[in-house]
Amino acid sequence: MLKTFFLIFLSMMMGWALPLQANQPERPFQWIDDENYKPLIYRSKEGEARGLFHDVLTEAFKRMNMPLECKLYPWSRAQKMVWEKKGDGMVTVYTPRRQKFFLSTDPIVTVKEYVFTSKDNPKRDEILNARSIADLKRFVIVDTLGAGWSKENLKRMHVIWVPTARSAINMIATQRADLYLLNEYAGPYFIQEQIKKGGALQNELKKIVMGNYPITTMEYRLLIRRDSPYADIIERFNEILKQMHKDGTYQKFVKRYRIDMRYHPKQNIQ
Asked: Can you tell me whether residue 164 is helix, strand or coil?
């Protein structure tokens, strides 16, 4: 009798478990992102994903006990792949256009955007003291193809679109453009990296300086396609993110990648 009861109970438990298993995706979460957005997300010399985004997502999915697979490509291609349903999500800004097709987690990283210009630019003082997007209208801006936020917010401005961040930095160094908007993580890191590489423009690159005031604040979130089998993990992911902030794990990751390379006003304006 006891054995019969146990078999019935076991059968009921398996019946309840099946729907839960059926709802679980049969493959890892396919995260596709930028291969060259140091130090937030990038491909290392060994070909592995690295950066602040990677550390946060890897830890979050580990805590959720969910498999994660990260594939990195040039940013334009990465976005296209996600739009074409070849990936579940990407980490970027939640623009109005993206809201129609993607769900969003809470911000993974909140950064401030600053202008970067050449110290030799005749408009240097005006550029360095710009405080808002409206203040940028009278300047020539350079930005990279596929920069969704810029396309949304820099409309009707004089923007030169180039394929890579290196091209944009070179445009600033040679004063073929007045300014380039970069965040407090990527800007100083990328410029110092280019200077270390040397080259014909090394002296010009050393003259690039960072603005005195943040132009805007940008929130980078994990965007998940609405039709992805992982679309229902948003709430759980957000709870895990809060835990990481509370237990200090998140702050440890940030400290690993933040480089204090701010240019003080006295250094900017000579």
From this structure: coil
Identify whether the C-beta of residue 148 lies closer than 8 Å to the C-beta of residue 100. Answer: no
Output the CA torsion 35→36→39→43 (10° steps): 40
CATH fourth-level superfamily of 111-217: Periplasmic binding protein-like II (3.40.190.10)
**Half-sphere exposure of residue 68: CA atoms within 13 angstroms, side-chain side:** 24
Place of tokens 């950064």: 111
The pLDDT, as a whole number, for residue 170 is 96
Q: Is the pTM of this model over 0.85?
A: no
Q: Do 195 and 229 contact (CB within 8 A), yes or no? A: no
Q: Please write the tens of the pLDDT for every residue from 74-132.
A: 999 999 999 999 999 999 999 999 999 999 999 999 999 999 999 999 999 999 999 99
Q: Are 57 and 108 in contact (CB under 8 A)?
A: yes
Calpha distance 169→165 (Å, rounded): 6
Give the CATH H-level superfamily of domain 30-110+219-257. Answer: Periplasmic binding protein-like II (3.40.190.10)
The residue extents of the domains of the chain are: 30-110+219-257, 111-217
Domains 30-110+219-257 and 111-217 share a fold: yes
